[in-house]
Design brief:
heterodimer, A: about 400 residues, alpha/beta, 4 domains, five-stranded parallel β-sheet, about 5% strand, B: about 120 residues, 2 domains, two-stranded antiparallel ribbon, about 20% strand
Chain lengths: ~400, ~120
Amino acid sequence: MLWTEKYRPKKIEDVIGNEEAKQEVVKWLIGWFTGNKEYPGVLLAGPPGIGKTSFVYALANQFNLHVVELNASDVRTAQHIYAKVGSIGGASTLDAFTGSGPRRNILLFFDEVDGIDPKADTGGLSAILDIANKKEVPIIAAANFPDPVKHKDLLNTFKYITFRPLTPRQIIILLKRIAANEGIAVSDELLNNIATKVNGDARLAVNLLQEASHGLDIDITLTPMENLPFEELIRRLTNSYNINEIRNLLNSNSNQIEDVFYTYYDLITRSNNTSFEDKVRLLDYCIKLNEMFGRMNKKRSFYLFRYILTLMPWFIYSANRAGIVYDGRIPAYRFKLFIQNRKYRDHLNEVYTDRLKMILHESYRKFVTETLPTIKFIDIKDEILEDLLTKVI
Amino acid sequence: MQYMNIKYGTPFRIPRRLGDRFKDIVSIRGVKYIKGTGFIIENKEALDSINKILVKMGLILKPLINCYICGGNVDCDECTFNKSCHKAVTHCICKTCFQQRDLVNIYISKQTQMIRRLIGE
């Protein structure tokens, strides 16, 4: 059994760290049950693995509440949300009615609300707000990175409480406690090593301790792999020649996998170290993966994702073997997503898309998807291209 | 040079006329300004950026972290994890308390006291 499950906190005092945030939530909940319903709910925000979900369950346990949870694995359209929780007006369970237990109040918990998809989960956020505004049951929502624009209403309605990553000293307390319960002797060196490397991620720390206790070599996993910044992820992937490491990196950062794919496509087309045959072989691989991504996104057939997760490590592995190197340049045709500097972005936009597509008499779509990658494939330097354009115009 | 203690995530006011620098400070990622309440700093990077502006005005903001066990100040410069820690917390554990043998139980009992005080038992 995973220690993260075995030692999931049962009471609030078992949750290590975020003392002020915990106090605020407890105060809010006590206030709710004593009639102060200024805020219909709280929104816990913070990176994964720092105890948001665990705290909610520990809180419910302490206050004898029954948690009704909707998380990212559920369908969260307005219809589904109303069907599941819309009728919980009575605010208590049927345990008392059926005689199977005492009457318990209900706590609604919406985990990972920032993952509610505006297209697929139509009306999901509005439904949550609608239920919250009725103020019949206390609601806790959790999010990793709430968007100030997309989640504006949620942020305005709910009490916003930030959960922060744990400090290394707090991580050590957590690990010492687990080690004592398991009856294992752990060296201070290992504890310090784990605490230093996990970036405040308690879940990762516990997993590493469990791996170490089984005698597994945790050298590879000792570097944090989850939620890496995009550039760091690409840098590590391109430097790796170990298929297991690549697989672990992709699994831990699966939310960025499509961007990784496009970046690799870009690196392949620009690479000078790769032979023509290798490029053709890798681009052929790209076509298949691209088709899969397209099918998955268009029809929202997420079962295809497991095939992508199986194929991607091999694609990256063979690309690395063929001499693909990351030169620190962000894929130019995806610059809109990455480049924050608006002036530079507008300049690139003008040079690449507006002027060139006008000369070639092509639609934007055709230009971006077909012509631009070809231009990059034959590797015309930006300055030469710009010079050429200026002359032509 | 004047030093001012602040807590991450807690509003504070800057005792200087900011003028044009106000815009620069508010545009830093991780800094919020709530009218009538003050500035809120979310993380260490934001604090470093804000200090680069304020140092020219003779002011440096220092994060105040309290020990959760004894309530004293935690000196991050003394900590062995100084480089690897994000420091964006209001509570940690000071060096003296961290060296206590029964640290885990003391920490848990502190939490229990806090919960009991809140619930009013």
